[in-house]
Amino acid sequence: MGKKIEGKQIAQSIREELAQQVSGVVALGKRSPCLAVVLVGHDPASVSYVTGKHKACKEVGIVSRDIHLEDDVGEQKVLDIVDELNNDDEVDGILVQLPLPSQIDEQKVLLNISPDKDVDGFHPVSLGRLMAGVPGFLPCTPNGIVELLLRSDIEISGKHVCIVGRSNIVGKPLMNLLLRKGSRGDATVTVCHSRSIDLARYTREADILIAAVGRAQMITADMVKEGAVVIDVGVNRIEDATRKRGYRLVGDVDYDGVFEKVSMITPVPGGVGPMTIAMLMYNTVVSYQRSQA
Ligand code: GUN
Q1: Checking CA distances to 1, which of 21, 40, 200, 255 falls within 20 to 30 Å?
Q2: Residue 120 located in a structural domain
Q3: Tens-digit pLDDT profile for residues 93-133
Q4: Phi, psi dihedral angles at 7 (to 5 degrees)
Q5: Does residue 62 fall inside a structural domain?
Q6: Are 149 and 255 members of one domain?
Q7: Catalytic: 97?
Q8: What pLDDT digit, counting tens, does each position of 34-77 carry?
Q9: Active site (annotated) includes residue 58
Q10: Using an 8 Å Cβ cutoff, are 119 and 280 in contact?
């Protein structure tokens, strides 16, 4: 019964649409959009995400600035760099890759990013705008999930969406997005987390189940409703001796176990991940268009 939701392909078409918009404006003699990406240290997962972001920028026609700092960089240096980027009229978006090393206060850095360039949507002002229902940058993973559902012809309005996970990056903003009035929202939302008693009682009721907990394959077939739509946000490494690198990536959902029971499901990798990057490109282009208006 299951059908794979092709996040990779949908993200590709969004990048192509954005590339067309950008080339149209640049053809008029305007500068290209610009995203500054700040990476601290050499965490392999962060390096891999940031590489993907630079690559996507290139495809869309966005100039990406690569600001790579050593592991032991001081907090003030990062704050100063963010200030410089805030004041640079040629920079449309600023992204500081998380997590940051322990000597740097993450919240302090995020607060220092101008909300006008907060293309990650992590600034408390952006989160507040989302909650208040006024225009602002939407966090990329939650907005990517909504876009993925709509472009897969999955109706959200009126549906029971169960989110497992309450992070500031996914669970909480996604809850607010899905609750908004209008065709991209109007859902009934349940948010569960690691302390929820009898989690399956809630997940089994979901028309759309969104797993964002960061625990490998924890959502099993007995926890999903027949015919449900399943969105897997998890990216977990599990040991796999048959792979050259010794591990493989799996989601928070037992994909093979639930596949026959559900109507549609996102794969890991190739589901939500590419959508996050596509929405980052979208936010950067929107910020650019505002600056050119
Ligand atoms: N770390 C993991 N995901 C993200 C993301 O979407 N943006 C940033 N800045 N850091 C991350």
Answers
A1: 200
A2: no
A3: 999 999 999 999 999 999 999 999 999 999 999 999 999 99
A4: -60, -40
A5: yes
A6: yes
A7: yes
A8: 999 999 999 999 999 999 999 999 999 999 999 999 999 999 99
A9: no
A10: yes
